[in-house]
Amino acid sequence: METGGQVDGRRVRGDATRRKVAREAAMIATTHGLDSITVGTLAAATGVSKSGILTVFGNREAIQVAAVVEARNIYREAVLAKVYEAAPGAPRLRALIESWVDYLRAGVFPGGCFIAATSAEYGRRDGPVADEVRKLKRGWLALLETELTAAGSPNPAVDAFKIDAFLNAGNTRREVFADDAELLCAKELAMNVVDQLPSG
After folding, report:
1. Model confidence over 31-90: pLDDT tens digits?
2. What's the CATH number where 168 sits?
3. Per-residue pLDDT band at 2 (split at 50, 70, 90)
4. What is the pLDDT of residue 5?
5. Is the pLDDT of residue 123 over 90?
6. 1 within some domain
7. Are the beta carbons of 43 and 49 closer than 8 angstroms?
8. Where in this chain does the entry annotate a coiled-coil region (predicted)?
9. Could you tell me if residue 121 is inside a domain?
């Protein structure tokens, strides 16, 4: 009969395996897409056996969902962690744009922005993976709209569209041309949207 400690130890190991595999899957998704994720590829990349991966996740779709959830955790750590130190509205928007650009330049994901990569891949699909991708994108847009509202934007949805469009274009061009100048141009354009706000 197993003791509570043994059960807890197994759970801790399972959680560590889940996080390790999900994080690697999120990395792969930015360069090769969520659809490219396989148990074999993850086993080779992480050193976790195929049976170990399947024991934790059950199937490939569960791994893909976990990759999106882990990407959200990474995003919170890399982009949002210090943003809320800034005052709501224009100061926080500037901090958010700065932090987002820094996260790309730091190479947190090998293929640029996770949200941009997976939104293009899963934008017209249905199912649990697509739902998580949409949830991630909606969360980003909702954050922009909340801060734009606080900054006095007369149309937060339109201004969020502009900022998101500029940053996405900067991400795409940086990935295609391997040039930070494209990203910095996008940053300036996004900042201009903030500068034109009533409290900008």
Report:
1. 999 999 999 999 999 999 999 999 999 999 999 999 999 999 999 999 999 899 999 999
2. 1.10.357.10
3. very low
4. 53
5. no
6. no
7. yes
8. none
9. yes
Token pair, residue 8, equals: 């807890």
Question: Quick check: is 140 in a domain?
Answer: yes
Q: How many domains does the chain contain in total?
A: 1
Is residue 4 assigned to a domain? no
pLDDT at 118 over 50: yes
Task: Give one DSSP letter per residue of the chain, joined into a string.
Answer: ---HHHHHHHHHHHHHHHHHHHHHHHHHHHHH-GGG--HHHHHHHH---HHHHHHHHSSHHHHHHHHHHHHHHHHIIIIITTGGGSPTTHHHHHHHHHHHHHHHHTTSSTTS-HHHHHHHHHTT--SHHHHHHHHHHHHHHHHHHHHHHHTT-S-HHHHHHHHHHHHHHHHHHHHHH--HHHHHHHHHHHHHHHHTSTT-
Q: What range defines the domain where residue 189 resides? A: 9-196
Nearest Cα residue to 167 out of 135, 194, 197: 194
Q: How is residue 140 written in tokens?
A: 């980003």
Q: What is the CA radius of gyration of the chain?
A: 19
**What one-letter code names the amino acid at 30?**
T
| pLDDT over threshold 90, residue 7 | no
